[in-house]
Q: What sequence folds into this?
């Protein structure tokens, strides 16, 4: 996102209604309608997640209501009232996206941002994941910020089906949805458990999601996210490195070693980092010969100008120095 998205204000326009009406007399808004055939890569199939709960939105409470709907769907029992103290900012009359994500993580769920296109929304819906979206129901210069939950799409009438405001089943035409969502920077997330990968998940983004959980202090959930990513993309060394480092930080040397060795067996990337870190662990365990071999292999695996080169050489020298001292 190139710039912070303004705070949603739950349906309260920035300009008084009379002033807005007067301003609109001066001209007509123009836009290019979207062709339904161009919105999707393939002809869309209809879908509706009828079991997604609905919480009627109280004044200015679209954020807590939308997040509660997606959290409950993910298996976490809550209500908008439970979330309001953590989400709603009275002086701003709204909820920040950063807080929506932070409170999702605080409940051991991942707020995974999907790509901002209609194909991604449909893919998630067909995978059983409702999509929480951010919209501007007003105009660019007179925004009305709003959160809603997309639960379905009707290709016959070209309409999205939303949990929105006071409407449990709001039908919104494809073109109107596109315009309001575009003005919200096409922001959309799915709220999932850390062992439930979204349909459109990408390895780098899922790894980042796990790290966000870990940095939030949710280490058990982060471990699960890393493990599910590793199982889905075993060739991506980042998950193996993350698991090794997390276990090492928890003083679980056995689990850290297992994670590193599995990574060296399975991964197609990050081999140098895995060897370097495992070398230091072997040094701590008094296995100087293996530590030296791993460190030398790590140095040999990267170019001299690699961003890891200096760190790898330092590890090698540390092992040589400490193992030599142990022999004296």
A:
């Amino acid at each position: 996102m190139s710039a912070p998205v303004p705070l949603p204000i739950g349906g309260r326009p920035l300009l008084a209604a009379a002033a807005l009406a007067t301003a609109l007399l001066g001209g007509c808004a123009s836009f290019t309608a979207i062709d339904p055939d161009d919105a999707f890569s393939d002809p869309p199939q209809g879908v509706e997640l009828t079991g997604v709960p609905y919480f009627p939105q109280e004044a200015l409470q679209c954020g807590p209501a939308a997040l509660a709907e997606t959290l409950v769907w993910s298996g976490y029992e809550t209500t908008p009232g439970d979330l309001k103290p953590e989400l709603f900012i009275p002086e701003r009359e709204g909820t920040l996206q950063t807080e929506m994500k932070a409170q999702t993580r605080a409940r051991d769920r991942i707020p995974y941002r999907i790509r901002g296109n209609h194909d991604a929304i449909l893919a998630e819906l067909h995978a059983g994941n409702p999509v929480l979206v951010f919209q501007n129901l007003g105009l660019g210069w007179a925004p009305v910020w709003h959160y809603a939950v997309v639960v379905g799409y009707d290709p016959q009438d070209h309409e999205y089906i939303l949990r929105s405001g006071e409407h449990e089943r709001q039908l919104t035409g494809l073109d109107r949805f596109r315009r309001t969502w575009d003005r919200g920077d096409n922001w959309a997330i799915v709220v999932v458990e850390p062992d439930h990968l979204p349909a459109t998940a990408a390895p780098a983004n899922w790894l980042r999601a796990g790290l966000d959980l870990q940095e939030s202090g949710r280490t058990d959930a982060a471990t699960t996210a890393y493990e599910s990513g590793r199982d889905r993309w075993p060739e991506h060394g980042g998950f193996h490195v993350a698991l090794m480092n997390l276990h090492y930080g928890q003083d679980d040397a056995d689990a850290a070693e297992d994670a590193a060795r599995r990574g060296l067996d399975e991964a197609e990337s990050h081999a140098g980092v895995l060897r370097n870190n495992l070398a230091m662990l072997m040094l701590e365990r008094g296995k100087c010969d293996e530590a030296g071999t791993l460190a030398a292999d790590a140095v040999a695996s990267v170019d001299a100008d690699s961003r890891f080169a200096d760190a790898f050489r330092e590890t090698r020298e540390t092992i040589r120095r400490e193992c030599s001292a142990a022999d004296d």
Observations:
- The first strand starts at residue 47 and ends at 48.
